[in-house]
Amino acid sequence: MERQFVRGCKKMSTGLRILAVETSCDETSAAVVEDGRRVLSNIISSQIDLHKKFGGVVPELASRKHIESIIPVIHEALEQAEITFDDIQAIGVTIGPGLVGALLVGLSAAKALAYVRKLPLIGVNHIEGHIYANFLEHPELNPPFLALVVSGGHTELVYVKDYGRYELLGRTRDDAAGEAFDKTARALGLGYPGGPIIDELAKKGNADKIDFPRAYLENDSYDFSFSGVKTAVLNYINQKKQRGEKIDIHDVAASFQKAVVEVLVDKTIRAADDKKINTIVMAGGVAVNSALRVMMGNRAKEAGIKLYYPSPVYCTDNAAMIASAAYYQFLRGGQSDLYLNASASLKLPQVVET
Amino acid sequence: MVKLKTESVEETQNLGERIGKNLQPGDVICLVGELGSGKTALAQGIARGLGVKDYITSPTFNIIKEYMGRYPLYHMDVYRLGGVHEMDDLGYEEYFYSNGITLIEWADRIQEILPEEYLLIEISRNEMTNPKTRFFKFIPKGQRYKQIMECLLKNDALQMRS
Q1: Where is A252: in which H helix or E strand?
Q2: What is the pLDDT of residues B27-38, one digit of tens each?
Q3: What is the ipTM for the molecules in this complex?
């Protein structure tokens, strides 16, 4: 577990501290972040042994798990930050996109806290949160920049013009990038999640061995499509099996990974070039992928573009990133009332200049 | 039982669109087929037929995705669920018995809790022949779904009968 201790912060600091909760999918998370940038604590349920600490069984289910974990996770977040509810100035919470039943657990907890403690409540978009994860470790980073959000559920290319001002340039039309990894791992009979497994296997494989298709779509499109590459891997495996030929799993993993990463990098670099943006940030679980980091790093360097990405713990779903987004939204007056609702298909607020 | 086949992703989407045009609130469509068989492609067509303007992306990670067309569309992928009991946690009855249309991928994994009546579509492929060809087997459970099949077969979909 990642421990983000800042001792004595209560006495020393006068910053604005936000407690945020995130329950949009599998993870139950709570965090305390000061001034949108300094992480005082970031607790993710799958990474701590709640079973040991709080007793009882923690089931592996989506919303039920959130219900059982949310209170202990919030307490742990305060405890690790070495503060109490008295030191919190606002409550941030993910309101979508995600699984409604799961989102509502976090939202209900956040509303109860805001009501009882008479604190401002701030509803945050999950995708926006992923982008803001980059502010937690890069104090010099400020908009404008281009953000590539790649995870199991999302693939989005966003032009971040300013805090709270976004233009969605592209997104997936079928499978998310992380999903392509999961499904390919499934096809190869590997475990879940597929990303880390394929990344590891690919290190020993030849990425140019098999020419899996790259879907670039229309010439001017920044959209993505990863459903075809998964099917191409399945076809390759089936053909090999029918012919009784051996499958080199390392080569398949490396070639598949390159097919996905190349499209992500090409489109991101082209968008940065077209829009004349000199900073790129990556976010989401797939931003941990080593091939993506290397290829994006090289191509950005060639183009004279600065590249940022968060540590792995801030790439996967976490509440610290939600607290950061909540902070900047709070500064803009983006406070919600207690009628705030969750939305499964929440869109990123868009600003399109003409 | 009706069998149809398609030769491309576009044809699968077009077939879905024709199904979507015949759907009413409360309808439940179950899609069964292996990885890469074209469940999401068919779902994309069904959504188009329902007038959904948004891209229909895979619901695998989020389990349920909601869209708005002529009626609400609930697109589910129950592959990641650990068992039928987890459907209770998702509040599945609110979707199945709602005023929207429910589309369930990997529905065979939650057989026990499916409503009495639904349209089952089994998708398969045969790699020995053309890897692009997809075979669709329609199994309507109940009068309402037999009706849908009749509507579907009245139009040009007939030409694709295998």
Answers
A1: helix A249-274
A2: 999 999 999 899
A3: 0.85
What's the CA gap between A211 and A255, in Å, rounded? 7
Chain B residue set in contact with A, beta carbons under 8 Å: 35-36, 40-41, 44, 54-55, 57-58, 60-67, 82, 85-86, 89-91, 127-128, 131
- CA A280, distance to chain mean position in Å, is 15
Q: DSSP per residue over A19-88, as a string?
A: EEEE-SSS--EEEEEETTTEEEEEEEGGGS-HHHHH-S-----HHHHHHHHHHHHHHHHHHHHT--GGG-
Looking at residue A101, its pLDDT comes to 85
HSE at residue A172, side-chain half, CA atoms within 13 A, is: 26
Measured CA distances, B124 to A85, A175, A220 (Å):
56, 20, 35
At A223, the amino acid letter reads D
For chain A, give the number of residues.
354
Total residues found in chain B within this entry: 162
Among A96, A103, A118, A121, residue whose Cα is nearest residue A20: A121
For residue B44, which residues of chain A lie inside 8 Å, CB to CB?
A: 174
Whether residue B30 contacts residue B41, with contact meaning beta carbons closer than 8 Å, is answered with no
| Residues A192-204 pLDDT 10s | 788 999 999 999 9
Do the chains contact at A99 and B131, CB–CB below 8 Å? no
The residue among A111, A43, A41 whose CA lies nearest residue A318 is A43
Query: What residues does A122 pair with on adjacent strands?
Result: A92
Alpha carbon distance A197, A182 (integer Å): 9
Amino acid, single-letter form, for residue A8? G
Q: Which of A77, A103, A91, A95 minimizes the C-alpha distance to A25? A: A103
Reference A329, options A153, A138, A90, A116; nearest CA is A90
